[in-house]
Structure to design on (169 residues):
């Protein structure tokens, strides 16, 4: 079976990708200023990437989550976060907001979600998390459109080396 070739958007249009990376860096500053800790930031980015089906970004953010001290047990509970007891109310609010951003085409951020999340998060936290979610959804689309490869863990090469070190973006 021959390997499918796709345009690699980040390599094909470096100025656009660099602008997206700069946007992501600005979002990181907003998140830090808004009191969003690394645990919450990585949890929402992993969950968003899982829902979007972006294996590449899941790998990138799982690596970062592990470095931030998030355990495999917590990571394994992400798909079933509503039934799990390992997440704080703040994290649950972030995960629910993440789902609204993935499925934003259905009804935007529904009023009941907005009210529930807003009862837990401050306005500053809501804004910061929203920008994180805009950013990760954009990166998911770049990686999914290009079918960025995710080889087995023992076969890290090229861009996966970047993902393993957290240098991809």
């Amino acid at each position: 079976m021959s390997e499918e070739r796709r345009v690699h958007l980040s390599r094909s249009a470096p100025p656009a990708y660099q602008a997206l990376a700069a946007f992501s860096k600005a979002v990181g500053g907003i998140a830090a200023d808004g009191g969003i800790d690394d645990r919450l930031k990585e949890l929402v980015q992993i969950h968003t990437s899982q829902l979007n089906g972006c294996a590449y970004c899941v790998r990138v953010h799982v690596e970062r989550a592990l470095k931030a001290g998030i355990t495999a047990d917590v990571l394994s509970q992400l798909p079933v976060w509503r039934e799990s007891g390992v997440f704080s109310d703040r994290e649950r609010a972030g995960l629910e907001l993440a789902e609204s951003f993935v499925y934003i085409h259905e009804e935007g951020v529904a009023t009941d979600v907005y009210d529930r999340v807003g009862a837990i998060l401050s306005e500053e936290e809501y804004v910061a998390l929203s920008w994180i979610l805009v950013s990760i959804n954009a990166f998911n689309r770049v990686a999914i459109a290009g079918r960025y490869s995710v080889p087995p863990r023992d076969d890290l090469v090229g861009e996966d080396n970047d993902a393993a070190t957290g240098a991809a973006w």
Notes: The radius of gyration is 16 Å. The longest helix spans residues 123-145.
